[in-house]
Amino acid sequence: MPEPDLEQLQRQHIETLQQRYSKALVETGYDALLISSGAAPMRYADDHGYPFQGYGPFLHWTGLTGLENSWLLIQPGQGARLQVHTPDDFWHASAALPDEAWARDLAVEGSVETAPPLPVLSTQLAVLGDPLTLAGVPGDHNPPALVTAVEATRIHKTEYEIACLAEANSRAAEGHRAARAAFLAGESEFGISLAYQQATQQRESEAPYHSIIGLNDHAGILHYQFYDVVAPEVSRSLLIDAGYRYRGYGSDITRTWAGPGQGEFQALLVGLEALQKRLCQAVAPGVDFVALHRKTHLGLAALLSSAGVVKGMDEEAMVAEGITRAFFPHGLGHLLGVQVHDVGGKPVPSPADAPFLRLTRTLEPGMVVTIEPGLYFIPSLLAPVLAGPLRHHLNQGLIDILSGCGGIRIEDNVVVTAEGGHNLTRACLP
């Protein structure tokens, strides 16, 4: 998208937020709101801080991930005021004041102080942010009703937000292609991580989340957090879950690849990808996401049966007896935005049969969701089934072979449109 178009969309985005936040403040009885950008806490008994990315509502307005100790002041009927912390510091580089078109719609100023700008005539002030950064600030801190209302403003994305997420997908796609090439060339997990970062030109600390890069059985650890520096003797599989942050908005993409000679695993991978594409195509207004999650389990049951992993049971029985949950323990997806697991997705708790599902809403236009079915061979989850009364339905020999490949997850980012769904990921990573 040409930059002038993106600037115009961002200015419209700010105008929309002015309206949404003013409505939330009026409805909750506040006439002013301070939002803290946050600050990275210091490590215990050390003089170094943790990596910093910023507080969600602050990013929702500004997209500026690196601004610590900065503030946004919002008052209905007035333009928002952005105070950027610009200390006189010879140890570190100070933040530059934003000078894009959207910033000129706000009152932007620098300050060497960390104290917030206070409204002059406010009688009911609310303050949102990490409690560690709010000490000594007047007003009501993180009032629940306002927090809920502010989170609701992020459920339906503006055109600007969707454009940012599309760009974040496009840039992450470059990294995924480089990661696959590194895997096929026999690189280690660490080497694959470097290939991803080189292709995206984004440091790990700037990405929306720590990349999950698992070879072989590590692919069966859902949030595998390490990078082996030595490649295995045989690279049987790669699962990479990695994104890119663009103007504060993060993509969240997962791909799984089979190495040469992994016929049984490759067949499962092809089957799961076909299921994942059908689920993406099912995204549309009015779709109950909990029902779509349950549909995923039925599709997974059919795949396990056709692959010979489970035998002698129909699909409904596999789901009812909890067998599919042993292979697919997490939820189908979540909302996506300035946070990878964006807020506002669970107006009601997850159902008992899907305790880890992060989205329990009926889909509506403007939502952006992930669709990420998985199929894993996790010893701690499969052991009770293999030792239980249904063990004769499981093909222990085939499971032993497939366990060395860890598991499969395929994840795309999909916009709910008025007509159905638009897959941001497949547009750049078929």
Automatic annotation (TrEMBL):
One CC-aspect GO term: cytosol
GO biological process: proteolysis
Co-factor requirement: Mn(2+)
Cofactor: binding details: Binds 2 manganese ions per subunit.
Protein origin, superkingdom: Bacteria
Binding-site list for Mn(2+) 1: 252, 334, 372, 411
UniProt family annotation: Belongs to the peptidase M24B family. Bacterial-type prolidase subfamily.
NCBIfam families: PRK13607.1
Record-given protein name: Xaa-Pro dipeptidase
Native species: Marinobacter zhejiangensis
